[in-house]
Amino acid sequence: MPSVDIREATIDDSSLILRFVRELAIYEKAEHEVIATEADIKKSLFAQDSTTHAVICSRLGKHGLYLEDLYVSPEYRGVGAGKALLKHLATIAVATQCGRFEWSVLDWNEPAINFYQSIGAKPQDEWVGYRLAGPALEHFANS
Question: Which stretches of the chain are assigned E, i.e. beta strand?
Fold first, then answer.
């Protein structure tokens, strides 16, 4: 699940809140009904006697580290080389304040899947990889 940050809104968020009000109105096909201004938001939400509160929710918004390929020669499998490599990259991700460290694995590579899950990695089922290659790539590029 993506990391989210929820915090109390401040008066400095007034223009952002107004933008959200307008976006919701557009989604609800009622944009014409929005007459509020940024000053109205400031007064209604942040005046001393206001009984209304707002929170701002945002997603992680950090860099990530992506590992393209991890290959360990058969004679070095099972001795900790793969784990050492992943740990080294995880250390880099933490040191550079990445919010995530991701890679892909073929769905039939059961030993790798089991290994990744054993270190706490979770599969990301919501994404599907796509590829253009060979004649399809050339056809698309030339179309």
Answer: 4-8, 55-59, 64-67, 100-103
Along the 143 residues of the chain, how does pLDDT read in single tens digits? 456 788 899 999 999 999 999 999 999 998 999 999 999 999 999 999 998 889 898 876 778 888 988 888 888 889 999 999 999 999 999 998 888 899 999 999 999 999 999 999 999 887 778 888 899 999 988 99
Nearest residue to 115 (alpha-carbon basis) of 126, 125, 103, 127: 103
Which residue numbers are catalytic?
116
Euclidean distance between the first and final Cα of the chain, in Å? Answer: 38
